[in-house]
Amino acid sequence: MPELSVPELLDLDRRHVWHPYGPMPGRQEPLVVESASGVRLRLADGSGELVDGMSSWWSAIHGYNHPVLNEAAREQLGRMSHVMFGGLTHEPAVRLAKHLVDMSPDGLEHVFLADSGSVSVEVAVKMCLQYWRSLGRPGKQRLLTWRGGYHGDTWQPMSVCDPQGGMHELWTGVLQRQVFADPPPVEYEESYADHLRSLIERHADELAAVIVEPVVQGAGGMRFHSPAYLRVLREACDAHDVLLVFDEIATGFGRTGALFAAEHAAVTPDVMCLGKALTGGYLTLAATLCTSRVADGISRGEVPVLAHGPTFMGNPLAAAVACASIELLLGQDWLAEVKRIEAGLREGLAPAAKLPGVREVRVLGAIGVVQLDHSVDMKAATGAAVREGVWLRPFRDLIYTMPPYVTGDADLARIANAVCAAAREG
């Protein structure tokens, strides 16, 4: 196909490409990105560059076109881009599993590599259900979570997303009915802790697991909550024979100011889901980690295998880049960079609190959120950010940023100005 002009690309895009969370054909014309480097997206129409305030949906923590990650991909391409994982193994996947076990909370010893974050949650749920079946307790098949959560767009993850007001409300009555606690408060409240304990105790005989996003609820509303609730869940799950799953797809690899949000509470879950930043935003890859208790329980069952095997499981190209991304992260003072970003966002977003229509401004680690008292005007808010030279992707009543960790102070200030401008006009 000959090289296409921007108008030709946009015409073909509108006729054939179905974008996420959008109708077909689309109603808003997307921006065409020609290339990306550092924290900048170069637009194909020649209008210039945009500072990326989203880390490409929270994944590109090292920015774009990074020489270390590029070299890891090139070197692995020279060996093999893919080989099936059934009956075979290879160094990139083994190294990656060792990295994840070494850096994750103590006790998580086994790694199942999957294709995407949503699939990692599917695998986590399957692990928990099969664990109890293997132990002769097939009635433990429901999940408990709290409202305001988001765990992905495939079937089981949709069932534990917020059932009211969330993007999956359409499937009410079709999805399995799970057990929902109230949304977690920001600060610790003993009454809410009792609410969690009571629900777990009441439903213990039918609960396979509790699954939550620790400390930060992501696409369900960008809410923060006290890490103390994670300890409450751990203690209640232990007391009533229920497994505990942490979905760290959005929070993993330093985003909250800890390598994993579970560390804020010094808690180890039975199962943990990872994705997004795992490969530094280069390739799709996810992982489900579990304890020996879970793995041994499944392996002693009537069906002693976890019957799940994606075609591209353990893809060596993705695994090699993930290893390089982890080594790059741990080889620098990532915590200092996240704290620098946190301080910059606190200062830069403070003026937004005084804007009409703003309900709350909140910052944690490399996450900055402005919540409005109304639904965002996507076109107006996005346009305002672009005029400031920044790419943002607001949703619902939220204008937020999760910048790459390599974002410099000047670009961070620009991102904060763009968030404020979007809040003002959106």
Automatic annotation (TrEMBL):
Keywords from the UniProt entry? Aminotransferase, Biotin biosynthesis, Cytoplasm, Pyridoxal phosphate, S-adenosyl-L-methionine, Transferase
The text of the family note is: Belongs to the class-III pyridoxal-phosphate-dependent aminotransferase family. BioA subfamily.
Q: In which pathway does it act?
A: Cofactor biosynthesis; biotin biosynthesis; 7,8-diaminononanoate from 8-amino-7-oxononanoate (SAM route): step 1/1
Q: Where is this site: Participates in the substrate recognition with KAPA and in a stacking interaction with the adenine ring of SAM?
A: Y21
Main location (coarse class)? cytoplasm
Please give the InterPro entries that the UniProt record associates with this protein.
Aminotrans_3, Aminotrans_3_PPA_site, BioA, PyrdxlP-dep_Trfase, PyrdxlP-dep_Trfase_major, PyrdxlP-dep_Trfase_small
Described purpose of this protein according to its UniProt entry: Catalyzes the transfer of the alpha-amino group from S-adenosyl-L-methionine (SAM) to 7-keto-8-aminopelargonic acid (KAPA) to form 7,8-diaminopelargonic acid (DAPA). It is the only aminotransferase known to utilize SAM as an amino donor.
Identify the domain of life: Bacteria
Q: What class of enzyme is it?
A: transferase
Q: Describe the reaction catalysed, as an equation.
A: (8S)-8-amino-7-oxononanoate + S-adenosyl-L-methionine = S-adenosyl-4-methylsulfanyl-2-oxobutanoate + (7R,8S)-7,8-diammoniononanoate
Residues binding pyridoxal 5'-phosphate, per UniProt: G117, S118, D247, P310, T311
Report what the protein is called.
Answer: Adenosylmethionine-8-amino-7-oxononanoate aminotransferase
Q: What is its EC number?
A: 2.6.1.62
